[in-house]
Design brief:
The structure is a homodimer of 338-residue chains. Chain A contains 13 helices and twelve strands. The first copy, chain A, is an alpha/beta fold and 338 residues long. The termini of chain A are far apart. Strand 2 of chain A pairs antiparallel with strand 2 of chain B, so a sheet runs across the interface. Chain A binds a DNA duplex (30 and 30 nucleotides) through helix 2 and helix 4.
Chain lengths: 338, 338
DNA sequence: AAATACATCCGAAGCGTTTCGGAAATATCA
DNA sequence: TGATATTTCCGAAACGCTTCGGATGTATTT
């Protein structure tokens, strides 16, 4: 069993109070006795009990992240990269990450209530915003500091702090890139409408078309669940129903990779007589059979920003909303003709 | 501020003791009053304070994972996938994951001491075993339950619970696969010797050669740091110094992808006049420019197993060591000739 | 010399929970 | 009817820490 303040007190001859104050740097303790106490603490390998500290209302130096149910999408890198990025960024500021997920019969909201209700974290980061997001409503109702990666849908107000990538601009850039290459029939595979970001991506696509005076056709839009398989299925459907298409943009890289597979099977040569582009720039994109033109989201840097921003929210409690939009970067590779 | 037992006590007219006992299912409370208390608790959105519980010596229902410094390898998927896998698996059993990393000036061991010393977790999972691993020595010295993904080097004893993939067998299988295809000069890119698993991989390579009566040549071995770039560099070196090579196995997929790049640049056609194979089966492997023959480590399933095993260790404190070796699966793709 | 300041220390309360050891009221037995 | 169980409840202590409000003794001031 680990050493407690009481152990140090006994061994040093001072009171628990003095030991506590010596160790936490108060200036009303004699330098000599402080040294003495610190020495003993080191000998005993003292580590302050985290729970006892928290019970006093101290900060937990922990921030929470709950990740969506796994069934949702097994090979989706998003949460794994975010988790790792947040962990590093948090460590850099002396914080830890409490990661959790809903158990079989629970909802994401249940987990939020458990984590923040039990006072285990100083703040939360929430990702993958939904329309009318109940997680955000809950966090606001209990006044728990949080930062959102993403923002509300364009038709809703985002009355919270967020950092988002300007995916409208990103999809517009990649779509325009395809249009520039002469493609006039460009399909798109969108994420499920439940996600707030879905609409921004569609808007970006439409803006690009408009800039080129090309009419928007709803039948050029298909929907996927962010997985490779769903991208494949959606692309197969597009290709069979809209054979005039010569390009497809996938709203994330996995769906784009699935689309590439479908396009290949349909007999096209990607990068020559058909273009495919993605979004995210996951590690696999650069090394794909035909390297994937895509839009880079600097997930690591975003992790850093999220943590930094959340810490200022926790410590300064700003009254005005911090809302940042990051410009994504178009990464041109072979799948759009290089 | 969240409701406490005292609030419920006041509102219900019962004592804190009774409220506590009612809520945690003791049978010495009248069914009627229990119902009454539960109703009020729900109304108030009561969530037990986690710290207060822990202070009573309760289980934390949290398990810790500390991930290695980021500088080590930015595009290494290992920890991110492990983290996500563990989080899901833990959630399934009602556990959370506390993820941390060393800050700039700290070592991994420092983080272990802080996390377990402050009593924040019921157990730890440690990954990427080193030779003479100090983390393991520490955990043993403080009697903290832990499970290792990996095991000690072959020349050391593994006196702890572990789950490992039989990478010796895996590398042997993939090497033999190349030898079967008629390659007689097969190079290998090994991980740094600091890692316990490095030796198993080398042993697997040597065993495969021995089975084919081919002499082992140390000059066919290069070393990398698990990154794509390091694989590229190592392969360039091998190719220039050992031009007779017709195959290279990388000890992880990223190094193999780097090797593929070097091989391509050297003018070979991968899968035809040169073979490359990897290890891990990361998502990018299947979608690489030439799909990568590799050995699959079921990282998700391993996450499940690690958690399940760790929980039995925490709850049952077994005296004998649980040690499991998983047979990896050879995945043959185009980079070795299909 | 008395009054005041300063340096150094400590007792006790409190954070929210669990749990031990009863206590009071009611039911069951002889 | 008195003794004994049973049911239902609760007070108080404890977990390890922080912090408020002194207390004690020494140094400085007038």
């Amino acid at each position: 069993m680990p050493a407690t303040l009481k152990d140090i007190a006994k061994k040093s001859g001072f009171s628990v109070t003095t030991v506590s104050r010596a160790l936490s740097g108060y200036d009303d303790v004699n330098p000599g006795t402080r040294e003495h106490i610190v020495t003993i603490a080191d000998e005993l390998g003292y580590q302050p009990n985290h729970s006892a500290r928290q019970l006093q209302g101290q900060k937990t130096h922990t921030i929470g992240l709950v990740i969506a149910p796994p069934a949702h999408n097994p090979d989706d890198d998003f949460y794994s990269l975010l988790l790792k990025g947040l962990t590093y960024a948090a460590a850099h500021s002396g914080y830890d990450i409490l990661a959790s997920a809903p158990a079989a019969d629970a909802t994401e909201l249940d987990v939020y209530q458990r984590i923040v209700g039990s006072k285990r974290v100083d703040g939360m980061v929430v990702a993958r915003t939904n329309r009318d997001d109940r997680r955000i409503a809950y966090l606001q109702s209990v006044d728990c500091p949080f930062i959102v990666h993403g923002r509300a849908a364009p038709d809703a107000t985002s009355n919270f702090h967020y950092i988002d990538v300007d995916s409208q601009q990103g999809i517009m850039a990649v779509t325009q890139h395809l249009l520039e290459r002469g493609h006039t029939h460009v399909g798109i595979i969108l994420p499920a409408e439940q996600f707030a970001f879905s609409q921004y991506r569609q808007a970006g696509y439409m803006a690009a078309l408009a800039a080129y005076n090309i009419m928007f056709r709803p039948e050029y839009c298909a929907y996927g669940t962010l997985t490779l398989d769903s991208g494949y299925t959606a692309a197969c459907q597009l290709l069979s129903q809209q054979p005039q298409l010569t390009a497809i943009v996938g709203c994330n890289d996995w769906m784009a990779l699935g689309a590439m597979k479908a396009v290949n099977e349909a007999g096209y040569t990607i990068g020559k007589d058909f273009a495919v582009a993605g979004y995210d720039d996951i590690p696999a994109a650069a090394h794909a059979s035909t390297s994937l033109t895509t839009v880079r989201q600097p997930i690591y840097a975003i992790g850093e920003m999220l943590i930094a921003r959340l810490l200022t929210i926790i410590n300064d409690d700003p009254t005005t909303f911090h809302q940042t939009l990051i410009e994504p970067e178009l990464v041109i590779r072979d799948s759009s003709g290089g």
